[in-house]
Amino acid sequence: MSTTAVTETVAVSLAGVSKVYGRGGSAVRALEQVTLTSAPGEFTCLIGASGCGKSTLLSLVAGLDRPTGGEITVNGRVALMFQEPGLFPWLTAAGNVELALRARKVPRAERKARTLELLDAVQLGGFGAKRPHELSGGMRQRVALARALAQDADVLLMDEPFGALDAMTRDLLHDELDRVRERVGRRLTILFVTHNVREAVRLGDRVVLLSSRPGQVIEEYPVPIERPRRMDSAPVAELASVITDRLRAEVSRHGN
Amino acid sequence: MATDTTLAGLDALELAPAGHGTDAAERARRFWAALWPKVAAIALVWVVWELIHLTGWKKFVLPGPGVTLHNLWDQAQTGLLWKAIGITLERAVIGYALAVAIGIVVGLLVARIPPLRAAVGSLITGLQTLPSAAWIPFAIILFSLDNTAIIFIIVMATAPAIANGVIAGVDYIPPLLLKSAKVMGLRGLGLTWHLVMPAALPTFMASLKQGWAFTWHALLTAELLVLVAGEPSIGQLFAADQDQTDMPSTIAVMIVILILGVLVDALFSRANNAIRKRWGLT
């Protein structure tokens, strides 16, 4: 009834965004007329088959690439995580996190303490002195997460960050990601790309289904399942199967 | 709660077991494993050399290993050989250091600035293929017979190889690392210092070693021809031996150069291994 002063702004907004690679006959339409908004603190999972331009979309939001058409608005700082951790092998785990702090000019005196805090946040407090190659895949990905958090981002873009991990590690990192979101204490908006439907339902407040070649938003599914969630729970599986059916229908379209 | 302990358990399981300690016996074994092939190789060369000597081939000019090593021993007693080694090494180190500094700066600039690369990229490779002897007349006319000429020749021979090494190192930086650094907000000099230089290091190490070989080649060529009065050098010893057809002494000096080469190579291997270990490439 009475509208309270809701200062609900938008964290990320894409309005009619298109991206074409190449020119003329060989041009590839990666994204076409994608319109999408994320509220601050919202966890949005983007899902689609190959060629849906998921990674392109994240690159555009991260500002690594420019859209061919449309408008992208990002309120705040952006950090990006990939399937590979992309840690710098010549630095220790702590060194990697600290470099991100340094890049945004955090004073030297603060850096050490902040680094330790961030490593603690991903439960790697005791591993700061290790080099990336001395850590397991899951641990490296957590260092990468700490490094992303060190960028003090308001928007965290994750491009299949757990795609290369074994099932058990991935499940634990899902829980970890939930905890980290609570711990950072600010409204961290996440855009999470995956091709694992269950993972999307397990993590997201909302799952956005994209079509392939060109990538377009074909359906949005809110995820009204209470947290904490488990990937193997019935409600997650149920919604996942609905989305999977829709995804399969979209994929079969390309077989004809 | 449960998640924390499971995660910690997984971490403990996944971490490689602590490296097996290197005790004295292990170290001795490794030392021996590295040593014996070298000793065997030297012994083999000695035997073959002795056999050639025994056949009497060119026996008036080609000494056997015994005579040669005796000559080397005698030379080592005089101050001249050591002084020559000292002066030659000093030139090598100064020339090499200058070449590395110039090569790194030029290499980074060319690698990071596309128009500059288009302009001088192939010129650097061209310079690298230019034999160092080709610089000698130029250097002598420009600087006359002194140390500067020799250093100049070393730099011209070595710096292009170093610059090319930097360029190759930069080109082979994994794109993911570059992307990560850019997302972090590293730009310009910060990007060069924190990402480009360390990431290019492994490839660059190979060119440092190659550069040292160029330095040696250029230096000995230069010393044979640019005779600086009052400054005995290895090249000068060669020149004197050649004048006096002193074959034992000539071979003895060659052995000295080989030994120096092996020692420097050991230094480079050590640096290289340290980097590989750091990066987890071993």
Write a compact overview of the structure shown.
Chain A has seven helices and nine strands. With about 260 residues, chain A is of the alpha/beta class. In chain A, the strands form two sheets. Chain A has a six-stranded mixed beta sheet, sandwiched between helices.
Give me the strand/helix succession of chain B: HHHHHHHHHHH
> Overall mean pLDDT score of chain B?
89
Task: Considering residues with a beta carbon less than 8 A from a beta carbon on another chain, report the largest interface and each chain's count.
Answer: A-B, 38 and 30 residues
Order of helices and strands of chain A: EEEHEEHHHEHEHEEH
Structural class of chain B: mainly alpha
Q: What separation lies between the terminal Cα atoms of chain B? A: 37 Å
Plain-language structure description:
The complex is a heterodimer of chains A (256) and B (282). Chain A contains seven helices and nine strands; from the N terminus they run βββαββαααβαβαββα. With 256 residues, chain A is α/β, with parallel strands linked by helices. In chain A, the strands form two sheets. In chain A, strands 5-6-7-3-8-9 form a six-stranded mixed beta sheet, sandwiched between helices. A three-stranded antiparallel beta sheet of chain A has the order 2-1-4, with helices on one face. In chain A, helix 5 links the parallel strand 6 and strand 7. In chain A, helix 2 packs across helix 3, helix 3 crosses helix 4 (137-150) and helix 6 (197-203) packs across helix 7. Chain B is mainly alpha-helical and 282 residues long. In chain B, 82% of the residues lie in helices and 0% in strands. Chain B contains eleven helices and no strands. The longest helix of chain B is centred in the C-terminal third of the chain and has 38 residues, at 188-225. The two termini of chain B are 37 Å apart. The relative contact order of chain B is 0.10. The model of chain B has no long low-confidence stretch (mean pLDDT 89). The chains are: A alpha/beta (256), B mainly alpha (282). The interface between A and B is medium-sized, with 38 and 30 residues.
